[in-house]
C-alpha cells in the first residue's frame, strides 16, 4: 500500500482508532477559552472524565482550546461540518441564526444562572433540533450574570450614546444600537486589545473573566446590577453521535442533561462571583449602585429587544408568548427568573 493510500484510509476512519477496536472513539473537543479558565479546568474536565469512565474507557477526548481549530464565531459550523466532534458554542455570537435561544441572551431574563442552567437546558431541548439540525444539542448554560464594565462611570443608558461598546452577544449589540452607541464585534479573547487600542470604551462581561483576560486594569467602573447572561452550549456533530454504539450513545445522553448543565458551569460560576466580590472590595475599582429610576431606565431601554425577538421567532414559526411563558415558569420554579 502506498503512503498516499494509507493516509486516505486513516482519514476515512475518522475518530475510530481501528477496525478491530470499532467501539473506541477519540472525540475532538474544541472551544475558545484559555486552558487556565475555570470552565475547562473544572466543568469540561469533570464532564469528559465522567464520560470516559462511564463508557468503560471507550470514549476519549482530545481537547483543542483557545480557538486552535477556528475562531469563537465559527464553533457551531465546526461542529456541524465535523471539523470538531464536540464544540462549545455561544449561539448569540451569530445574530439572528438561532432565534429561540436568543431569548436566553436578552437582558433582565435570568437572575441566577447556576439554578437556571437545568431549566434552560430542558426548555431549549424542545426546539434545538429544529434550530440546530446538524448537531446534537447536549446542554446549555449561562455564566454568572454579567454587567457593564467601562473606562468611565456610566449610570444611565443615555450615556451610551456616542460610545463604542463590545457586546457579549447579538442581543446586547441591539441594545447598544437602540441607545445610540456603536458595537465592536470581537470575541472574548480579543476584548482587551480592543479596549487598549481605544476601539472600545466599555464591555459587557462577567466580572471574573475581566480579571482573567487582563481587562480589569483598563475598566475601573462596574455596574453592580446583573444585567444579562451570555449562554453557551455543548454541541456534538450528529454524524459523530450516530457512529457511536447504542451503549456509547446512552452514556452521552446521560451526560446531556439539566443536571450536567449545572455541574459543568459550577466552577465558572464561582470564578465569576469571586471576581464580582473583588471589584466590590478593591479601592481601585468603583461599583456603581443604580437608583431605582436608573434601573427602570435600563429596563425600559431593553424593552424593544423583546419585541424584536418576538418578531424573529414568529417568523421562524413559533409562538413567542408560549416560548416566553414556558421559560419564565421553569425559571421561576427554581428562583432564577429576573424580577
UniProtKB/TrEMBL annotation:
Top-level division of the source organism's lineage: Bacteria
Swiss-Prot/TrEMBL GO biological process terms: transmembrane transport
Protein name as it appears in the record: TRAP transporter substrate-binding protein
Span of the signal peptide: 1-22
This protein's record includes keyword Signal: yes
Gene3D superfamilies the UniProt entry points to: Bacterial extracellular solute-binding protein, family 7
Keyword check for Disulfide bond: no
Keyword annotations: Signal
CDD domains documented for this protein: PBP2_TRAP_Dctp3_4
InterPro entries registered for this protein in UniProt: DctP_fam, TRAP_DctP_sf
Organism: Billgrantia desiderata
Pfam families to which the protein is assigned, alphabetical: DctP
PANTHER family: BLL6794 PROTEIN, PTHR33376
Amino acid at each position: 500500500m502506498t503512503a498516499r493510500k494509507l493516509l486516505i484510509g486513516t482519514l476515512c476512519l475518522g475518530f475510530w482508532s481501528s477496525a478491530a477496536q470499532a467501539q473506541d472513539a477519540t472525540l475532538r473537543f474544541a472551544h475558545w477559552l484559555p486552558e487556565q479558565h475555570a470552565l475547562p479546568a473544572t466543568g469540561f474536565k469533570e464532564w469528559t472524565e465522567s464520560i470516559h469512565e462511564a463508557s468503560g474507557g471507550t470514549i476519549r477526548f482530545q481537547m483543542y482550546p483557545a480557538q486552535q481549530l477556528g475562531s469563537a464565531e465559527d464553533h457551531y459550523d465546526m461542529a456541524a461540518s465535523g471539523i470538531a466532534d464536540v464544540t462549545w458554542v455561544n449561539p448569540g455570537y451569530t445574530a439572528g441564526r438561532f432565534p429561540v435561544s436568543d431569548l436566553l441572551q436578552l437582558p433582565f431574563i435570568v437572575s441566577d444562572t447556576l439554578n437556571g442552567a437545568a431549566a434552560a437546558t430542558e426548555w431549549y431541548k424542545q426546539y434545538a433540533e429544529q434550530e440546530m439540525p446538524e448537531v446534537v444539542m447536549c446542554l446549555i448554560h449561562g455564566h454568572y450574570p454579567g454587567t457593564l464594565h467601562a473606562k468611565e462611570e456610566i449610570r444611565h443608558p443615555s450615556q451610551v450614546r456616542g460610545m463604542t461598546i463590545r457586546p457579549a452577544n447579538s442581543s446586547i449589540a441591539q441594545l447598544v444600537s437602540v441607545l445610540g452607541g456603536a458595537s465592536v464585534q470581537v470575541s472574548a479573547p480579543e476584548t482587551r486589545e480592543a479596549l487598549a487600542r481605544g476601539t472600545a470604551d466599555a464591555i459587557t462581561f462577567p466580572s471574573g473573566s475581566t480579571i482573567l483576560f487582563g481587562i480589569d486594569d483598563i475598566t475601573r467602573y462596574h455596574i453592580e446590577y446583573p444585567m444579562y447572561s451570555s449562554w453557551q452550549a455543548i454541541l456534538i456533530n450528529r454524524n459523530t453521535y450516530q457512529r457511536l454504539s447504542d451503549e456509547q450513545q446512552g452514556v452521552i445522553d446521560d451526560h446531556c442533561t439539566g443536571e450536567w448543565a449545572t455541574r459543568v458551569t459550577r466552577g465558572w460560576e464561582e470564578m465569576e462571583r469571586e471576581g464580582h466580590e473583588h471589584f466590590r472590595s478593591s479601592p481601585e475599582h468603583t461599583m456603581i449602585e443604580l437608583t431605582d429610576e436608573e434601573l427602570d431606565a435600563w429596563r425600559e431601554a431593553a424593552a424593544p429587544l423583546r419585541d424584536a425577538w418576538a418578531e424573529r421567532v414568529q417568523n421562524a414559526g413559533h409562538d413567542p408568548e408560549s416560548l416566553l411563558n414556558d421559560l419564565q415558569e421553569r425559571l421561576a420554579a427554581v428562583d432564577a427568573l429576573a424580577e
